[in-house]
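The pair is set out directly below:
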Amino acid sequence: MLALVLLAAFALFPLFYAMLTSLRGGADLFRPDLLGGSFSWSNYVDVFRDQPFGRNILNSVGVATAVVAVSLVLALPAAWALGRVPFRGRAVLLVTVLMVSMFPQVAVLSGLFELIRFFGLYDTLPGLTVANLVLTLPFTVWVLTTFIREMPQEVEEAARMDGARMPTLVWRIFLPMMMPAMASTGLLAFLVAWNEFLFALTFTLSADSRTVPVAIALLSGASTQELPWGQIMAASVVVTLPVVALVIVFQRRIVSGLSAGAVKG
């Protein structure tokens, strides 16, 4: 019990310290005592007043949601084929998908930049969505393939005997069974798109197209001493708490989904 308490305190202390710092200003930011000094909500007001931070949050929500939706829609039939349909070269294709998911972002940055600029998607949210799919789609296909492989063959055989065709098998029989897996995989894809920084910095230029990681990074002054640490912490808390709430809401589906992928059905 003591170990769990210490582990929880170690994990939650950075968020607690960020919340305290976000409520301080001036010299109180550098006080050694945690609970000393004065507290106010001015940093939160300044974050939304001095830049279009609300628009940046909406951009991140829109991009992350679109990435999750497209990733799951494209990954489900691909994972079904890789997990259920025997064909020559399936193992090689799976290894290729895994290798693509391991590529560093810098390795594909220049080529992806040329593609996005060629199709006229530079400094647009659809362009950023396409770029994030490079990160999430291989991972989503790989994870869903492992879930589909563990599903009982008897369900598929019984459905085929009743005359169910492939679209019915995938969308009406196995899709409800895969909801825990899709919830956990979708949430992980959402976190990847929500926290992505390099593509968001490279493929967006205007303040109206930026996502929150870039917006927070650009909250800076001329030197380190002039950095608005209170506003940076306030912005970090604003974008972190919704993610924490999302994980808490879907924690049962996440646990059941991850457990389903680890235990053979």
In short: The first helix runs from residue 2 to 22. The chain has one domain: 40-262.
